[in-house]
Amino acid sequence: ALLADWPLSLTGLLTANPQEAELKEPKLACFYSIANGPAGVSGLGLAEALLKAVLPRLHTEFPSLQHTVTMSPIPTFTKMSEKNDQSTTKMSEKNDQSIITQMAMAGRVEAHLGAKRGAHLLDPVAHFHLRNGASLARLLYMPDAPAYIRQQSAGFMAHYRYERGRLEERARDYAEHGHLCKDPDYQVVIV
Asked: Residue 184 in 3-state DSSP?
């Protein structure tokens, strides 16, 4: 989607009806789902090839773009939290939306995104984006998130930012060190 600003909800992103001015001079391009293909073509790096082909073209066609981001799920958060502590599931089921509870939960999601298995991040979506040179730009809590997002990640999603001119450097840094790269302007956003 081509937008004037960062999307704050999945529903808003998927039903975006940008104004003509936004389409002529968008400030942000947001991808909802970037995924590798089915098992028969796994290992071919189709998603990586798509990113490498589309990102430069977007910036050529829309020079007004300031950000290229994703709105990405955190599919392993509640599953891994349940192994360690049942309170995550209980808070998610109660739909506790107090700011203190959500900020505490955001800290747990951040810690989960930084958790490693061997040399790389445990979360497959975070691993994908960081190995392709993105940084974690925003952690977004959406109380109106679809049920599957609440079930997977207690209502949280992540914005990963692909910053032109930094992709190779960040991908190399991730390959060498395997740590979670946060954007210099990283934020937690509670909607």
From this structure: strand
